Amino acid sequence: MSHIRYSAIDQAVSRIIDEIDGDITLGIPLGIGKPNPFVNALYRRIKADGKRRLNIYTALSLNKPQAHSDLEGRFLNPFVERVFADYPDLDYLSDLRDGTLPPNITVNEFFLKSGDWLGNPVAQQNYINSNYTHIARDMAHNGVNVVAQAVAAREDEAGLRISLACNTDVPTDLFELLKPRREAGEKIFAVGMINHNLPYMVNDAEVSPDLFDIIIDDPAGTHTLFSTPNMKVTQADYAIGLHTSTLVQDGGTLQIGIGSLGDAIAHSLIMRQHDNANYTTLIRRLNQGNPMKPDQETTPFTKGLYGCSEMFVNGFLKLMQAGIVRKPVYGHAGLQKLLNQGLLTDKVTPHTLRILREHGLIGSPLDGDDVSFLIRHGIFHEDCSFEDGQLHAGEAVVGNDLDDSDVLQGIIAHCLGQQLAGGIIMHGGFFLGPRDFYDTLRGMSEAERERICMTSITFINHLYEDRYGTEALKRAQRVKARFINTCMMTTLSGAHVSDGLENGKVVSGVGGQYNFVAQAHELPDARSILMMRSHRMVDGEVKSNIVTHYGHITIPRHLRDMLVTEYGVADLRAKNDSDIIKALLNVTDSRCQEELREWAVAQGKLSADYMIPRVHCDNTPESLAARLEPFQQSLPAFPFGTDFTKDELAIVKALMALKASTENPLSLMKAVINSVFKDHEVPHSYLERMGLEEAHGLKERVMRRLFMGNF
């Protein structure tokens, strides 16, 4: 097919509405790959019509943060204006939140913004529970007839070039699945809307413009990208990240996620590489003298890591800049295996040809396929070719018989390259991050960009043979893989809760977690690592996140592997039920250990005389703080910077204290009394930032006093 280019969004919307009879079923990517202005225009037209249906299938819909009080708005609104600028909110998301979504429009999400939709019945009812690898299949099954995506673009002498940029995850699979319906004559539109602010990614992300029926280049399509400001990394987060960082093995494969725990891991790995003496001292202190487990390492990375993650996050970029994620993998299983075995390196020498021939990757005399393979991987120069049964180097005929010593010397002199080409250090399915993350991607050199391959989620999350036929390649590339994810709760049997509650409400979604956990059990030297904070506070009470049992699970107990809390690593693989419980008790907050131990004894799952080892009976925030205190300068609250100013960080702390008090009537009363009867010195800049330098009227005076009372 060939594309039609529109300079106005409404023109494209009109064409789609005119040419599709009946319902429109729209499939759009998760995160920032949504073409918001196009989606809003289509949504408004169908909403105004009232008769036709619009069914939307997507995930992780994102609108700008909203304040929930006057005081919060005074802080948040200037921040949102500065950071999110002209980012256009999604109309369907605003209406869904407000309860005004019209009856002729349905929004089906495969993954929800964590915790945001627990109280929204419509969002809960229309959530679709699927593995990330099945989303394209499910969209096709539900009759998607419009696929729309924000794309990056370049113009050169060859014309328009298009990149799927931030979302290669689902579209490449979805377009393939829709082919049979297209070929049967069904009207299906693929729409690409250019956002010139999107980083242009190459390799698998670069596609023909003719993949789309419609390409829109309307100035309204170029807007600020939604960013996720870096979150504060707490002491507990750092402890979890530090423990986890010892499980990452040199020369291995890494998958991590977004958020403070992901930043904690990345910062810990950077410490391990560049401040190793301090790092190893910190690890010893954190472990209270316990010996390291066989799977743990603290030495710097001499080989480096390869990144393979559904989400390409800021932490990966920092690890690349630190020279840790630097290990290339190559797109040929046989070649990759020889590299893994140490029989080849990425340096090309005459030895390279000999090893390739000994292992059957090339023959002699060389044929066209051999020469193509050698050129593709940089073993031969690009000016080499195979014509009329002969190997050519430019204009010269070199010959192709490797057994002829003169020919071989000619090949070495005229054809041999210096280094393998096409190495990828990072495979990702989609990306999302803070503003400087996008800035860095946009500012990369072409050589840096070529080492990153945004690709299909099927390739990344799914191990087994698929339509790409790549299982052998994935197995060769993903050596010593560490698939690191988070969970909310873990049961004493080793099952994990990551996406929902036992009352059926969905917190977020399964995403790719199940796929990565399953991969860890199928790859011979891989491990699944789930990170979890040991406890949470509910109405001032400590509640353990390690629980006796739970009415909903995401990862079943038979796929248990490693759990990391701030108090250490629980290795659950291959253990019997009693030993699973013992390992989990060792990383439980000590305020909750005895209750869990007694329950396990009462159920007959633990011997009545079992006592938790003394070294694990001091698992408290106070003890953890004492162990980390000497290293505070090495553990900054925002290791990768923040969009908040220094004043804003101080204000956030005060607002959080005030919010906590408003959720507890007794604490609120104390806060009111404290603010009325005590004077608090607050920098004028804080009051100015909040618009409270002058308070007019009773409401503003009370607000000012409460705000000042929390410093």
Short note summarizing the structure:
By secondary structure, the chain is α/β, with parallel strands linked by helices.
Write up this protein:
The protein has 27 helices and 25 strands. The protein is globular, with a radius of gyration of 28 Å. Helix 8 crosses helix 9, helix 9 (260-274) packs across helix 10 (276-286) and helix 9 (260-274) runs parallel beside helix 11 (314-321). It starts with a strand and ends with a helix. It has four domains: 4-221, 3-Layer(aba) Sandwich (Glutaconate Coenzyme A-transferase), CATH 3.40.1080.10; 235-327 and 426-621, Glutaconate Coenzyme A-transferase, CATH 3.40.1080; 333-414, no CATH class; 646-708, no CATH class. Helix content is 38%, strand content 15%. The model is unreliable at 663-673 and 675-679 (pLDDT under 50). Strands 1, 2, 3, 4, 5, 6, 7, 8 and 9 form a nine-stranded mixed β-sheet that branches. It is of the alpha/beta class.
**Poorly predicted residue ranges:** 663-673, 675-679
The CATH class of the largest domain turns out to be: Alpha Beta
Please identify which CATH superfamily of the largest domain we are dealing with.
Acetyl-CoA hydrolase/transferase C-terminal domain
Amino- and carboxy-terminal Cα gap: 63 Å
Estimated helix fraction:
25-40%
State Rg.
28 Å
Q: What percentage of the residues does DSSP assign to strands (E)? A: 15-25%
Mean of the pLDDT scores? 92
Major pleated sheet: 9 strands, mixed
Task: Estimate the global geometry from the Cα principal axes.
Answer: globular
Structural class estimated from helices and strands: alpha/beta
Strand runs, count: 25
Query: What name is given to the CATH topology of the largest domain?
Result: Glutaconate Coenzyme A-transferase
